[in-house]
Inverse folding.
């Protein structure tokens, strides 16, 4: 009994105040804040990785479509001494070469199906089929003799513009190239 009285007398001198409970609650709060922060960081990184993937898909699809457009020009003018494609002789499908400045690639109505825009290859990983159009730019004469008016050593320049989207339509890529044909 003596031991019991000794414990009771000690507890009267130092009453418990719940310090262990307060410390454990504070530690639980800190751990919760860390877990929420880690979850938000992981979610943000996953979204950034997804957006980067969409951007890369859009770029690759636009680049593929750009090469398809260049190959189309090559097919139209083929041969060692190609005949120049003039807009007057190429006004109807499948020949859709435009004059300089007919379409603005930054305008949304440029890419409507009613315009002279061709569709690119069917790519499974992108949300929409890529598109391209071709503009005839200019003829540059390469003759070394001043005053010579022959087109024998001239180059005909075309501008190929391609547009593609990624896995969804929020990521878009617009690429341009200039194709020179000697005639």
């Amino acid at each position: 009994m003596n031991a019991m009285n000794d414990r009771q007398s000690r507890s009267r001198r130092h009453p418990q105040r719940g310090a262990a409970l307060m410390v454990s609650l504070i530690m639980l709060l800190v751990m919760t804040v860390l877990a929420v922060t880690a979850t938000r960081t992981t979610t943000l990184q996953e979204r950034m990785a997804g957006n980067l993937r969409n951007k890369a898909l859009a770029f690759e699809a636009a680049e593929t479509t750009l090469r398809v457009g260049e190959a189309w020009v090559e097919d139209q003018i083929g041969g060692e001494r190609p005949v120049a494609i003039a807009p007057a002789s190429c006004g109807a499908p499948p020949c859709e070469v435009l004059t300089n400045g007919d379409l603005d690639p930054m305008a949304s109505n440029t890419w409507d199906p009613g315009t002279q825009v061709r569709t690119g290859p069917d790519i499974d990983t992108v949300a929409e089929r890529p598109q391209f159009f071709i503009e005839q730019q200019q003829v540059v004469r390469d003759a070394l003799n001043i005053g010579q008016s022959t087109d024998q050593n001239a180059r005909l320049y075309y501008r190929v513009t391609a547009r593609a989207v990624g896995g969804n339509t929020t990521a878009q890529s617009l690429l341009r190239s200039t194709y020179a044909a000697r005639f």
Observations:
- Residues 80-96 have pLDDT under 50 and may be disordered.
- Helices lie at 2-13, 19-77.
